[in-house]
Amino acid sequence: MPSLKDLKNRIASVKATQKITKAMKMVAAAKLRRAQEAAEAARPYAERMNKVLAGLSAANAGNAEAPLLLSGTGKDQVHLLIVATGERGLAGGFNSSIIRLARDHAQKLLSQGKTVKILTVGRKGNDVLRRSFKENIVHYITFREVKQLGFVQADEVAHKVLELFNAGEFDVATLFFARFQSVISQVATAKQIIPAKFEASEAANNGSSALYEYEPGEQEILEDLLPKNIAVQIFRALLENNASFYGAQMSAMDSATRNAGEMINKLTLSYNRQRQAQITKELIEIISGAEAL
Amino acid sequence: MADAFNFELVSPERLLVSEKVTEVVIPATLGEMTVLVNHAPTMTTIKPGVVSVKLASGQVNKYVVFGGFADILPTGCTLLAESAVPLSEVTRETLQRRIEVTQAEIDRAQSDEHKTKLELFLAELTHLNGIVMPA
Regarding the domain delimited by A35-252, which CATH topology (the fold level of the hierarchy) does it fall under? Predict the structure, then answer.
């Protein structure tokens, strides 16, 4: 049985923890709003880009000279997994769910005899994946010092990916991130970005693209746009990830705060009970002492 | 008075402009072009330069863009810029920094083709620097 003093100390420490988690929850909530706005602001660009590219790629379908980024290398041997996670923990299952998805994917590919290369974005994913896939990690990018996530960062990642692709280092690239659904639900998602895939419906809507005049040529524009599209896709993934991270952190900290509250109640109860027991014990001692006289 | 059409200027980070305009001057790769209403559907890449937007009210706004592309339809025009800032917010430092970054990239470039492309980009940036920031 812990002594009264021990209990008191424990209550104090749980209260301190609760204060921290409460503050973190509030900070996460404020940052979540900003992250969500940023994700929404980026949407028009990505959508337009997608529409234009879908039209262009539909027009280029079956073209043997189509850029490799669109048609792929024709092989399916070497896979690059781009795993985007958070820089920090304390966000519930956010990081681990992305990592789990990426790990399962990697293991499946390995068992099929494929070669797997991993590019990690964010410290957390790198730390964990390094344990089981040390030889597979080809590059690691961290945004630890970055305060506001911008297109520049996405461009940096895209640059690296394109550099690897142009050097013939991989055939297929898949991006892993958490799609932001709501504050309480973030879904770890895998998305193939090289060779590019477009939804058929969007291409169909743009069937009139043949009427366009292209300046300079269709091919040149496509070649110019595809690398940009990679950057945009990554940027979107990073923004979604960012929003998901704060969402996950907010709900994790919310339940941590609630748990701490419950624990304080329990501890206070046993503290009071013990105090009462001690008082009773002292009274008994005094009374029995007086009776003995 | 000329008819108005919809113009949108979008950068990856946000939607900068979405308004009724009468005239837009775009720094297209093959030379500047002015877009009016009922323009033939055109898709063009753009180089670093100044986009000048004439609003339906007659007011002219200017933005500096760094590459991207434009999607022009008879009923509207969408400019997807890699990065875009109102002209008044551009400082000599931001331009200078971009020039330096490009310069560093040229030094690192391996293929000649890539190098030529970057050098072209640098030339345009330097030119832009001259226009926006007269010494």
Answer: Pyruvate Kinase; Chain: A, domain 1 (3.40.1380)
Q: Which domains does chain B have, with CATH numbers?
A: 5-87 (2.60.15.10), 91-132 (no CATH)
Please report the ipTM that was assigned to this predicted complex.
0.71
**Interchain contact, B13 vs A49, CB within 8 Å:** no
Neighbours of A293 (CB within 10 A): 4
CA distance A249 to B123: 46
pLDDT digits (tens, 9 = 90+) for A179-188: 888 888 889 9
Q: What is the pTM of this model?
A: 0.81
Q: What are residue A83's DSSP bridge partners?
A: A120, A176
Which residues of chain B are within 8 Å of residue A225 when distances are taken between CB atoms?
Answer: 69
Task: Collect all residues of chain A within an 8 Å Cβ-Cβ radius of residue B71.
Answer: 48, 52
Mutation pick from A40, A45, A56, A148 vs chain B, by most beta carbons of B within 10 Å, is: A45
CA distance B103 to B129: 14
